[in-house]
Automatic annotation (TrEMBL):
One of its GO terms (cellular component) is nucleus. InterPro entries: DHS-like_NAD/FAD-binding_dom, NAD-dep_sirtuin_deacylases, Sirtuin, Sirtuin_cat_small_dom_sf, Ssirtuin_cat_dom. Residues 362-374 have a biased composition (Low complexity). This is NAD-dependent deacetylase sirtuin-2. Residues 327-346, 358-444 are annotated as: Disordered. CDD domains: SIRT1 (cd01408). Belongs to the sirtuin family. Class I subfamily. Residues 327-338, 386-400, 413-422 have a biased composition (Basic and acidic residues). It comes from Cryphonectria parasitica (strain ATCC 38755 / EP155).
Length: 444
């Protein structure tokens, strides 16, 4: 369905199932009309209050801030082909984004409360941060459309890798290898990288969205297919609620659509008030995250945005530190052959702390390329311009986004780059139900 203004429902059009098109009408419907079949769909905007950056915000996004690093293109850090050649950049970033560094928001806890009250049929999330699990949403009620850090396996033989061992490797900055020494393949979290298939669970649970009594969409720009089609999967008279900074997708075109525009947490609190759950929700949230974290998340929006920018810059700096080789090491590299000097630093020859290569003071590579992000993200441009609250992918605490820093080090000089549109973003359309696999770098 399109987003043209002419398609928006007339204000005087009566709803079919709701008593009124408002949070009050939604609350009444939840209490008296739902049969435990609420489907929730979330994106990066759900986690920004937790300090996790999204991927595509112009200034605070992960890609924008990783663009200054020595990568062939910012999204290479989540490209499976690049990962096979150079896993180090991803693991430097993974250390900063790993679960445990961030805490759930009150919106995450609201979803857990729906599950506790036997109202949640399924949560579909694009985020890879595992905050839903931390909040208490049962694992069997979560479909991580873009994967997550919750599990990991060898990319060659598929053998699973122990959780505790993975945590140790990430913390120590050591790239994990398959426990089968005959294989020795690289181990990667089950995050969907560009060029990989979507999880089977996503397709297997698609029908759940078609039978929902109520669809709640939170903090996503609905630009990544096939996820973007989920809210439209059910009948036209299915009530739908949007918590987001801007209208997205086909919201506003159906008689039972309710749009609560603004940050997710504020909207959730208003709905909790209407439901009479506010005290219970606030108490459960503080129990989960603690008073100190709760107060931190309650900062005013300007303060949160400033803190988010600081966090993004810090993350980019951490990745940059790992990618830098000091002048002394740089000098020693001059003994290498001319052909090797042109584009490599020799990963294996350097200490782990500087394994990602040195930052070269050469012009920034300004290709019009911006491959789609990994899973935990919103990517295909089928909706309106991304909003701050509805940005693509969230990985860690504040929305991270890569940046670009010049020449490729220790990677192929002629990496495949995704086709681009006039805005410079990679926008390969993916029909609903298909994978993001492609010869070009794609959003996981």
């Amino acid at each position: 369905m399109g987003q043209e203004q002419s398609n928006l429902i007339e204000e005087d059009t009566p709803p079919k199932k709701l008593s009124q098109r408002s949070l009050s009408g939604i609350a009444e419907y939840i209490k008296h009309g739902c049969r435990g079949r609420i489907v929730v769909m979330t994106g990066a905007g759900l986690s920004t209050a937790a300090g996790i950056p999204d991927f595509r915000s112009p200034t605070t996004g992960l890609y924008a801030n990783l663009a200054r690093l020595n990568l062939p293109y910012a999204e290479a850090v989540f490209d499976i082909s690049y990962f096979r050649q150079n896993p180090d950049p991803f693991y430097v970033l993974a250390k900063e984004l790993y679960p445990g560094n961030y805490s759930p928001t009150i919106s995450h806890v609201f979803i857990a409360l729906l599950a506790k009250k036997n109202l949640l049929s399924m949560l579909f999330t694009q985020n890879i941060d595992c905050l839903e699990r931390q909040a208490g949403v049962p694992a069997d009620r979560i479909v991580e459309a873009h994967g997550s850090f919750a599990s990991q396996r060898c990319i060659e033989c598929g053998r699973s890798f122990p959780d505790e061992s993975m945590k140790t490797h990430v913390a120590q900055g050591i790239v994990p290898r398959c426990t089968d020494h005959k294989c020795g393949g690289l181990v990667k979290p089950d995050i969907v990288f560009f060029g990989e298939q979507l999880p089977a669970a996503f397709h297997a649970n698609w029908s759940v969205a078609t039978t929902a009594d109520l669809v709640i969409v939170m903090g996503t720009s609905l630009t990544v297919q096939p996820f973007a089609s989920l809210p439209d999967a059910g009948p036209d008279d299915t009530p739908r609620l949007l918590f987001n900074m801007a209208r997205v997708g086909s919201f506003g075109t159906r008689s039972d659509d309710v749009l609560e525009l603004g940050d997710c947490d504020s909207g959730v609190r208003k709905l909790a008030d209407e439901l009479g759950w506010r005290d219970e929700l606030e108490a459960e949230w503080r129990r989960v995250v603690g008073d100190k974290e709760a107060e931190k998340q309650l900062q005013s929006l300007p303060e949160r945005e400033a803190a988010l920018q600081d966090e993004v810059e810090n993350l980019a700096d951490q990745v940059g530190f790992g990618l830098r080789i000091d002048d002394a090491t740089s000098h020693s590299e001059t003994t290498k052959s001319d052909s090797e000097e042109d584009f490599t630093v020799g990963w294996d020859a350097v200490e782990p702390t500087s394994r990602l290569g040195r930052v070269i003071d050469s012009p920034v590579v300004t290709t019009a390329t911006t491959a789609s992000p990994p899973h935990g993200s919103d990517i295909t441009q089928t909706g309106e311009a991304n909003s701050r609250e509805g940005e693509d992918l969230v990985v860690g605490r504040d929305a991270l986004k890569p940046a670009s820093l010049g020449r490729v080090i220790d990677g192929p000089a002629d990496q495949h780059r995704p086709e681009t549109k006039n805005d410079g973003a990679s926008v390969p359309e993916v029909p609903a139900g298909e994978s993001t696999s492609s010869a070009d770098p794609r959003s996981p």
